[in-house]
Amino acid sequence: MNSSKHWQLHPTLARDCHLVGRLSSAELLLHRNAALHWFILVPHTDTVDLLDLPANERDGLLSEASRISRYLKQTLGYPRVNVGALGLVVPQLHLHVIGRREDDPCWPAPVWGNLETSAEYATAQVEQVRDELSLVK
Known about the structure:
Blueprint: H1 11-16, E1 17-22, E2 27-31, E3 38-42, H2 55-75, E4 80-84, E5 95-100, H3 123-132
Antiparallel strand pairs: 1-2, 2-3, 3-5, 4-5
């Protein structure tokens, strides 16, 4: 992986998310707003755009996104999953993987700028996500 010796999670991501664990190609975060399941994958790289990653790194990251998508659909019952790598507010490369359904608080609009509902995860809920994803703490 095109990793940096001094890689750090961007402060905005650290503030807005729970650290769920380390996957083979990225850190896995869970957005603190529990109004819907919103995961963020952050690879250890200096590359800022998804499509600029070397093919093997990009494939690894997308494979992890696919794994999160299966979890959202099969375990949590989301019929749709949105994936995006915008990087406009937070310049560090990160990939959003968000469960969507017709009863979510911003359906059918995008979550960005439309998620006015706020809820918090209990520590036990974050632990349950870790367990369900079979991640090491």
